[in-house]
Amino acid sequence: MSSKNGVSNRLSGRITIKYLAVAAALIIVIAGISIYTTWQNPSKPESSTTTTTTITKDIEGRVTLSGAFALYPLAVVWGEEFHKLHPNVKMDVSAGGAGKGMTDTLNGFADIGMISREIDPTEIAKGAYPIAVAKDAVVATINSNNPVLNDILRKGITKEIFIGIFINGTIKTWGEAVGRPDIKDAIHVYTRSDSAGAADAWAKYLGKKQENLKGIGVSADPGLLAAVQQDPLGIGYNNINYAFENKTGLPVRGITIVPFDVNSNGKVDANEDINTQANTTQSIKNGSFPNPPAKVNYFVTKGNPTGITKEFIKWALTDGLRFVEENGYILMSQETISEMLKNIG
User: Fold this and answer.
1) pLDDT in tens, 33-84
2) How does the average pLDDT of the chain come out, rounded?
3) Could you identify which of 41, 81, 97, 114 might form a hypothetical disulfide with 67, taking C-beta atoms 3.0 to 4.6 angstroms apart as the criterion?
4) CA 76 to CA 213: how far, in whole Å?
5) Residue 223 in contact with residue 312, Cβ under 8 Å?
6) Pick from 234, 156, 237: nearest CA to 203
7) Domain 137-294 carries which CATH code?
8) Which of 118, 121, 79, 78 is nearest to 98 (CA)?
9) In this model, does residue 207 exceed pLDDT 50?
10) Is the alpha carbon torsion for 278, 67, 193, 294 positive or negative?
């Protein structure tokens, strides 16, 4: 009997331990379910001391910009910086000339047109909504191996001479351009073949329209620049952000910037010296640079901008302004900026 009782007691003990273990496991499982339920439903805390975190989604979508080569470098920087702030917004920036930018925008192929000329009333009638964003200018460019380079740098070129080269075609040699009849080298004139803000501004400076400019047609700012770089007798014109190296502030290799003899006194005065980017931008700021070809650049939307497009433009005209001058452009006046912000709401 004692043997049976011993076995019975041991079994009873084992059963008791087993049930206690099962009970403990059940308690752990129930507690785990409770913790899991609380984590999955943070809006229903166990006690008043539980804290919650609200997650707000960032803006997302896509903004497309098309148009002027003049604005392209700045728009790329703005797009990259805005994307850093809003990683869910894709920025698509492409250059193809101001004319393409306007067409793409009015036809709904782009959210923003980059336009480096004044907006025509007929374009506004079709829904174009212009927003001034920055200033720049167009300069005449020649090859650094030009046969009368020193004469040009000393004397500059007057508007009348530019008209004879680009409009009338009456000045055909570099000797005629600087008053040296012994120099017979022919002037090779290059102009833009695409509808461009740079061509519009240059033609307006000469009192005409782009279609009145003579020369071999070359597409795009980089293309026109390359044509002059490769031709010692060439002359063209470029937006300043293509004529100058932004890092050094000096003309791009192989190119010399033609100084304007604004007062026609036969020499380059201190305020007419535009051989560096800094000198050129300062000349534009103080008004000694001819206007045109100094000009305002615009973002254009079809109708008032809305949604992400509006947010991007507002950012460009506020926090984004710090990138304007460091990328070779000139800031708009604070009055103009305030007006633009007020207009877009």
Assistant:
1) 332 232 233 333 333 333 333 333 588 999 999 999 999 999 999 999 999 9
2) 86
3) 114
4) 30
5) no
6) 237
7) 3.40.190.10
8) 118
9) yes
10) negative
What type of residue sits at position 71?
L
CB-based contacts of 167-174 (< 8 A; 24+ apart in sequence): 167/206, 167/207, 167/208, 167/212, 167/213, 167/214, 169/214, 174/146, 174/147, 174/148, 174/233
User: Comparing C-alpha atoms, which of 101, 143, 159 is closest to residue 298?
Assistant: 101
What residues pair up with 89 in beta bridges, in sequence order?
Answer: 61
Burial class (CB in 10 A: 0-12, 13-18, 19+), 247: exposed
Task: Identify the CATH homologous superfamily for domain 61-133+297-344.
Answer: Periplasmic binding protein-like II (3.40.190.10)
Read out DSSP for 180-234?
Answer: -TT--PBPEEEEESS--HHHHHHHHHTTS-GGG--SEEE-SHHHHHHHHHT-TTE
Please indicate whether the domains covering 61-133+297-344 and 137-294 agree at the CATH topology level. yes
| CA dihedral sign of residues 85, 320, 300, 226 | negative
What's the mean pLDDT in 182-208? Answer: 97
pLDDT digits (tens, 9 = 90+) for 242-256: 999 989 999 999 999
For the chain, the structural domain boundaries read 1-55, 61-133+297-344, 137-294
Distances (CA, A) of 55 to 52, 129, 334: 10, 36, 36
- The token duo for 35 is 């913790």
CA torsion, ordered 168, 169, 171, 172, to nearest 10 deg: 180
